[in-house]
Amino acid sequence: MEIDWTIVKKKTLWQYEQLTAKLLAVLEYDFVREHYGHTMAGARAYAGRLQQGYGQGGQEVGFIDAVREEYAALDALGVRDYADLVNRVAAKADCERFVRETGFPFESLVGVLDFLFRWVLPFKIPLKELLDTMPDPKPAEVEMLKKHKIRSNLDVLERFRSAEGRREFLAETRVREAQILALAHRADLSRLAYVRGRTIRHLCGGGYDTLEKLASAEPEKIMADMTAYYRSIGKDFADFQAVIPLDWMTGGASVLPRVIEI
To answer: How many angstroms separate the CA atoms of 157 and 64, rounded?
Structure first.
């Protein structure tokens, strides 16, 4: 069976082994294993919830139907969960063997991996991208975060998602408690598909600085709040809506697993 590796870059923007390495790195986090440790049957159900959430407002997410069927096929092949799948196909030689032995279509496999990377698992972004959304990051606090090897949004969630983790860090440092919790909530927002630092900064500017606030927002109110915020910074809210619609984000926020402990 011939495998066209150029499909991977075209579909995912990454070379194959870069993509699988990134997936495995995310799957190493305890909070990811805890909240995203889906069996293939669970993955199918979760994909359905994502489809319902992100599909609010008429967004086109019909492609998820195909992914759900592919999960069912992987389940029938004995694949246990996301980590099991990625580990089985991590290297090109492993992938070739898996495709040859199971008959699972290569292009479908790439589609599943891309879906995991972009829609299911949280996307890793640098700490600086989160800090740029904060109103008053103090240099000494930033250095303390780096000293404790907190270098990404996922490191923030791993360390600060629990009240105990935040207490331990505060006992060791002089970082302000309010800053730590605000940073954790911004990292939480970054778990939304395709939402990165700039979008987080604008959501927080409009008053939606936690996943819960976003998930529970009334459509008319959040529209009014974000329109007013954009006017206050001299921009047109329609430009923001054209990139990532509000109902996309509120719908997605309503179905993501809850990670932050208050």
So the answer is: 27
Helix/strand/coil for 31: helix
In the block, tokens 């007013």 appear at 228
* Dihedral angle over CA of 118, 157, 49, 41, nearest 10: 90
In three-state secondary structure terms, 126 is strand
In whole angstroms, how large is the CA radius of gyration of the chain? Answer: 20
pLDDT mean over 159-164 = 96
Neighbours of 205 (CB within 10 A): 17
User: What are residue 2's phi and psi, to 5 degrees?
Assistant: -75, 135
Extract the tokens encoding 212: 């819960």
Q: Looking at residues 32-48, what average pLDDT do you find?
A: 98
Q: Assess contact for 95 and 67: CB atoms under 8 A.
A: no
Contact 155, 149 (CB under 8 A): yes
Closest CA to 56 of 244, 196, 184, 209: 244
The two three-digit tokens of residue 116, written as one number: 């995991």
Q: Give the dihedral sign, CA 64/31/174/212.
A: positive
| Single pTM value for the model | 0.95
Structure tokens at 32: 């990811």
